[in-house]
């Protein structure tokens, strides 16, 4: 079954939707996204490999930002740091290449 042309925008939208989810609720977020959108993704021809990339991005990208979250503050507390600016800068420096890599893998998977 060849992928539907709408499958790539669909996967990107679902990945970005998951990005704005609740940080730290990875398992619940993956299960919810799969239950709500998994069947539609299958209907659109999204492969299992592509769907895994979508769920991975949707559940883990918020660890790096774009805004301060509980994960960042918890790590800062353990390190006894008060420098949120550096934490956000480091998060963005990791987030940009991670986003590029996720979308590159998704692009290859959907071809």
Q: What would you note in describing this structure?
A:
- The chain has 111 residues and is mainly alpha-helical.
- Helices cover 72% and strands 0% of the residues.
- It is built from five helices and no strands.
- The chain has helices spanning 7-19, 26-44, 48-60, 70-78, 84-109.
- Helix 1 packs antiparallel against helix 2, helix 1 packs parallel to helix 3 (48-60) and helix 3 packs antiparallel against helix 5.
- It is elongated and about 50 Å long.
- It starts with 6 loop residues before the first helix and ends with a helix.
What is the CA-based Rg, rounded?
15 Å
Number of strands: 0
Distance between the terminal alpha carbons, to the nearest Å?
Answer: 12 Å
Q: What is the helical fraction, as a range of percent?
A: over 70%
- Low-confidence region ranges: none
Biggest β-sheet strands, sense, barrel:
none
Number of separate helices: 5
Mean pLDDT: 84
* Structural class by secondary-structure content: mainly alpha
The SSE string, one letter per element, is: HHHHH
Q: What portion of residues belong to β-strands?
A: under 5%
Categorize the overall geometry. elongated
């Amino acid at each position: 079954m060849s992928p539907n042309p709408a499958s790539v925008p669909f996967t990107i939208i679902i990945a970005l939707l998951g990005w704005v989810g609740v940080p730290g609720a990875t398992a619940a977020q993956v299960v919810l996204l799969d239950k709500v959108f998994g069947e539609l993704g299958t209907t659109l021809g999204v492969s299992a490999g592509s769907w895994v990339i979508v769920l991975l991005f949707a559940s883990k990208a918020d660890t790096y930002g774009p805004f301060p979250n509980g994960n960042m503050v918890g790590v800062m507390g353990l390190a006894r740091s008060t420098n949120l600016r550096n934490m956000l800068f480091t998060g963005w420096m990791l987030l940009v290449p991670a986003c590029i890599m996720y979308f590159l893998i998704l692009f290859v998977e959907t071809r």
